Amino acid sequence: MSSILDEYAAVSENGVVDQLKQLAAPVHDLKVVHVNSTREGGGVAEILHKLIPLMRALGLKAQWEVIKGGPDFYQCTKGFHNGLQGNPVGLSDKLLDVYEKTNAQNAEEFRQVLEEADIVFIHDPQPAAMIEFCPNRKGVWIWRCHIDASRPYRPVWKYLRKWVVQYDASIFSLPAFAQRLPHLQYMIPPSIDPLSDKNIPLPKREINAVTREFNLDPNIPLILQVSRFDRFKDPLGVIEAYRLARKFAPMQLALVGGTASDDPEGEMVIREVHTAAQGDPNIHILLLPPDSHRKINALQRAADIVMQKSIKEGFGLTVAEAMWKKKPVIGGDTGGIRLQVINHYTGFLVRTPEGAALRIRYLLHNRHRLEEMGERAHRLVKENFLLTRHLREHLTLMLSLLSGEEERIEVGVQTKWKKNQS
Ligand code: UDP
After folding, report:
1. Pairing state of beta strands 329-332 and 252-257?
2. DSSP single-letter state for residue 312
3. Domain 2-191+386-402 adopts which CATH fold?
4. I want to staple 36 with a disulfide (CB 3.0 to 4.6 A). Which of 85, 101, 123, 186 is the partner?
5. What value, to the nearest 5°, has the Cα angle with vertex 48 and ends 42 and 52?
6. What is the pTM of this model?
């Protein structure tokens, strides 16, 4: 067994690595390509950085490609993102034309890799139209939607759907996000990597050094939200909740984020957050470079309570990251947060700043409850939201798609699969 698999066996659920090896044996050697729109920033990049090496450790020829586009392209795709999450957005024909041309150019650049792959995973709307420009594809193509598409703005979905219907299958994070589509839809929640810099245990002195670096007071409770500066993450609601809770007890708030290269709205939201903070010295707005994984890890460990007060959320890796570190999470009652935060058990689900403030006060006054919830949160993530479970589901999906009409799938045998095998 390769050493990386040994390491996962030590931290994951019992037996899961053996299952991975069994499931990977028949698809060993397959060419699997993942395509998204950014190498840094946001949950998709975070997942792919870890999923690809683990797939390779299991013998698959896994590859990750990132498409490129200009400002108009990202303005258009941010519009898709906002539209899929329910905001009424208008997209001009000019922007849609840029979207299609950018997908055609990227398809040209990656044509050989994509057309030769056995399985292609296209993540989110940015590269979704590439399928149109790869007519000679021989493999199975899967559209992976990471967005809360429970109530999309219809005109946006109607436009995107014309690309999505061309895929062999799609994956959503939750049943509530499924759509009317003419192909199989799989429900697979994302995951965190317990061995990454973002999540490995850290020595106390490193945690203390990071809190000192950001001028956080070790003697005052710390409330933390880590997120891209995006309105759906509701940073202004977090500030309001902190203000309400702080009337009753001293505390400090850290809003930690950065911008993703495929998110053109971040700068504007950062300005709104600074205005709302009104120079309060106990509100720390920390803009960190995209590779600050250990620092974010340290801040999550230093926090007393972690918030993720999103209004819409595909999954919310930040929730699983905090729970893995035994923190109760106060999260928005929406999307993927509901999968992770079991109300009153691993944290609290809230809808308003007032609700969030009430839960902050409760947890800070009931430390034993805070710790109990943190322990349960850790167990829930260990059993459900680690990379190993995620990959097990991807392998199962690959096997089921490649086996076509076969009634029985044999695992644990060294067979090579080829699509359209005669
Ligand atoms: N993240 C980060 N730096 C930041 C903000 C976020 O590394 O400044 C990470 C965060 O730790 C998490 C991911 O980016 O791993 C965000 O994923 P999530 O699913 O929470 O939200 P998304 O950005 O995909 O909507």
Report:
1. unpaired
2. S
3. Rossmann fold (3.40.50)
4. 123
5. 170
6. 0.93
Coil/strand/helix, residue 359: helix
Q: What is the DSSP string of 208-234?
A: HHHHHHTT--TTS-EEEEE--S-GGG-
Q: Is 146 helix (H, G, I), strand (E, B) or coil?
A: coil
What is the distance in A from the centroid of ligand 1 to the CA of 259? 10
Paired tokens of 390: 């995620």
Ligand 1 center to residue 296 CA distance, Å?
Answer: 10
For residue range 316-361, list pLDDT tens digits in order.
999 999 999 999 999 999 999 999 999 999 999 999 999 999 999 9
- Residue 227 Cα to ligand 1 midpoint, Å, equals 5
8 A C-beta contact, residue 194 and residue 9: no
Could you tell me if 234 and 332 are in contact, meaning their C-beta atoms sit under 8 angstroms apart? yes
Cα 124 to Cα 152: distance, rounded to the nearest angstrom: 14
Q: Give the model confidence (pLDDT) of 271-314 as tens digits.
A: 999 999 999 999 999 999 999 999 999 999 999 999 999 999 99
Distance of CA 234 to the CA centre of its chain: 17
47 CB near ligand 1 (under 6 Å): no
Q: Is the CB of 229 under 6 A from ligand 1?
A: no
Mean pLDDT of 203-210: 98
* Class of domain 204-384 (CATH, top level): alpha beta
In the chain, CATH 3.40.50.2000 covers 2-191+386-402, 204-384
Q: How many residues does the chain have?
A: 422
Position 204 scores a pLDDT of 98
Centre of ligand 1 to C-alpha 27, Å, is 31
Kindly give the number of the ligand 1 atom that is closest to the alpha carbon of 319.
20
Nearest CA to ligand 1 atom 17: 43
Query: 257 CB less than 6 Å from ligand 1?
Result: yes
Residue 41 Cα to ligand 1 middle (Å):
6
Tell me if 308 sits within 8 A of 183, measured CB to CB. Answer: no
Cβ burial, residue 262 (10 Å; 0-12/13-18/19+): buried
d(CA 48, ligand 1 centre) in Å: 13
Q: Evaluate: CB of 48 within 6 angstroms of ligand 1.
A: no
